[in-house]
From TrEMBL:
The lineage of its organism: Bacteria, Pseudomonadati, Pseudomonadota, Gammaproteobacteria, Vibrionales. SUPFAM superfamilies: FAD/NAD(P)-binding domain (SSF51905), FAD/NAD-linked reductases, dimerisation (C-terminal) domain (SSF55424). One of its GO terms (molecular function) is flavin adenine dinucleotide binding. FAD binds at residues 52, 142-144, 312. It comes from Vibrio albus. Its cofactor is FAD. This is Dihydrolipoyl dehydrogenase. Keywords: FAD, Flavoprotein, NAD, Nucleotide-binding. The active site is at 449 (proton acceptor). Residues 7-327 form the FAD/NAD(P)-binding domain. Residues 350-459 form the Pyridine nucleotide-disulphide oxidoreductase dimerisation domain. Binds 1 FAD per subunit. Disulfide bonds join 43-48. The keyword Nucleotide-binding applies.
Amino acid sequence: MQTLHVDVAVIGGGTAGLGAYRAAKAHTNSVVMIEGGPYGTTCARVGCMPSKLLIAAAESVHQIEKAPAFGVHPQGDVVINGREVMSRVKRERDRFVGFVLEGVEEIPAEDKVTGYARFLNDHTLQVDDHTIIHAERIVIATGSRPAYPAVWNELGDRLIVNDDVFEWDNLPQAVAVFGPGVIGLELGQALHRLGVEVKLFGLGGQVGPLTDPEVMACADKTFREEFYLDADVKVESMQRIDGNKVEIKFINHNDELETFTVDYVLAATGRRPNTDKLALDATRVDVDKRGVPTADHFTLQTSVESIFIAGDASNQIPLLHEAADQGRIAGDNAGRFPDIRAGLRRSSISAVFSDPQIAMVGESYQQLVQRLGNCGCFATGEVSFEGQGRSRVMLRNKGMLHVYGEQGTGRFLGAEMIGPSAEHLAHLLAWAHQNKMTISEMLDMPFYHPVIEEGVRTALRDLNARLHLGPEMIKHCLDCGPGC
């Protein structure tokens, strides 16, 4: 067993871990990064990038299917070659992973330790059965993994998670997706559009990450119009049959018992931080009820001043840009210790690349209710995209946007939406939120015509009126042009 003495040890080689390593190296050369699995980020390998490749293929099919509504009639049947679809997904996925690995290869070999780490005490780690590391500071950046009920393991290889989808050589005939969250909506809709028979099931009625009841109801209605979705299903039984099939019996929308036989059950029921095998009980780190270390939001420092945590392992916001930010903050503080500094935590922004897209910015409706209660301290402005001009031109006129503002100050607090180009609308709103703009200041910004962004202006005008800071909404206002 070899022994190492270092200033900083980073556990994990994903987005947060790589960011932490590089930030710490700016302050000291005595840094090691420990990784037991494959190097590369969850996003590149099994997350955001391969899923977007599958979604892009699905969108191409959908555009062909929509063409007759414009008076354009493609000739002949549309043929979806599942092997070609998955070949491109994997080929481009490997390209993205390659970029990450190029960065990893630039890290000196002596700075990389292969294996799984566990704590022996606040300053000591054991990596597998070959290395003891004494570190002055430690950054936990171990990421997360899919979570699902243990009983589902009885389905054997017919139970899959999103990681497995991107290893398919061909598309299956039928898939049951459990969990209409970000992953479930994106993959479920994409597979449906690529000709796979899909039913999407959930519990409790939750659709996507939305918390605004009206926006969520709109999302539920919109997706149910395209494919089978029951966000609060009652499953009577689920069992493996005929070797390679799974039979699911459930109560359908008509309150009838229905049987759905599938090739795979895709578990998209959430992710679990990879902190349970770190032997944290050997440290003085305070953990929450899930066993995840609690940390300061701005410094990422845990209750033990020499231990920091970043990325999906922190159980905060499991998104790549958040993991990168957290990694830099944690690594910087671990490197400059004891000169701890608060890092920049940007305004929250998240997106679901479904169609229509879902996006959230700033404080969610639920967070505002929890913080402000029912005192009338904030108001909601809204717009429907059903009649919005540019959206109707493109036959993408589905969804709605809710924007929230503070009474008295008129400050923009956040937004939830489902609609066309929500990923882009969310960026505009996130920039406004981070700059602490008021609704009036946002309305002073330029809006071109005709663009989907005009829908944002409509919602902001509605909100300004509800805050009693501007005039009532004018139907068919002249400066908006037709259809706004």
